[in-house]
Amino acid sequence: MTAAATGRPHAPGSGRGRLRMAPVLMYHSISPSGVADPHRIRVHPDRLDRHLRLLRRLGLRGVPLAELVRATDRGEAAGLVGLTFDDGYTDFLEHAVPVLDRHGMAGTVYVVAGRLAGQNEWDEGPRLDLMDADAVRAVAAAGHEVGSHTLHHVHLRGATPAVLAEEIQGSRRVLEEVLQAEVPGFAYPWGEFDAAAADAVRAAGYDHACVTGDYLPGDRFTIPRFYVAPGDGAARLLAKLTRHSWRMRGVPDAGGAG
Ligand SMILES: [Zn+2]
């Protein structure tokens, strides 16, 4: 089985084995707010609760992506699902953390490092508050992972080398300064990447990166995820998980390689 067999383009390999990845779910805002949600990025906390309850019924445990990747490297990812929350909205601490705690699960928050205490100015429409540095530290202290989502939530596909370096390296520096800890994970804004962007992520010292959308993964710098829509019920989520495991059949397990 080769990458070519998927018929899909992807970034050059990292030199390590292809990852037979467990599913990774992508959320954004978790909030009971009734404000218009034209970009469909808000999931109600009760719905998140039902999603996590479904995972438990299936014998699955939601973990931060860095933990999932480490487990995958060791061949020990069975029973795990990656949980990710993009953009670093302030509602994560208030509304997602209590639900995750209730189910004994944790996730990764991908923070836009140049907009701490700002808002989602990259979207037209309702403005949502983004975490400040204290909140980012609180997320890590509560047992969740903090990853980078660039400095300014820019389009990386086709970006110049200078923009790639500033947004990808610069955001890692900011977050490592805030956290006083290594930041191994990166998420491409809108999931947009090309080979140059993936190379820049690797060169900046990250361990892995995730994109948007479900397809057969190329390598650890283009890990696919499922978008979870505001209206996805347990049945829809189950269908997505089933489709993922169906697609993963036949991909060799890279875990424990060597
Ligand atoms: Zn984003």
UniProtKB/TrEMBL annotation:
A biological process from GO: carbohydrate metabolic process
GO MF annotations in UniProt: hydrolase activity, acting on carbon-nitrogen (but not peptide) bonds
GO CC terms: extracellular region
InterPro entries in the cross-refs: Glyco_hydro/deAcase_b/a-brl, NODB_dom, Polysacch_Deacetylase
Protein's cellular compartments: Secreted
Main location: secreted
Keywords recorded for this protein, A-Z: Signal
Coiled coil, from the record: none
Domain NodB homology, residue spans: 79-258
Superkingdom: Bacteria
Classification via PANTHER family: POLY-BETA-1,6-N-ACETYL-D-GLUCOSAMINE N-DEACETYLASE (PTHR34216:SF3), PTHR34216
Protein name: Polysaccharide deacetylase
Native organism: Blastococcus aggregatus
Taxonomic lineage of the native organism: Bacteria, Bacillati, Actinomycetota, Actinomycetes, Geodermatophilales
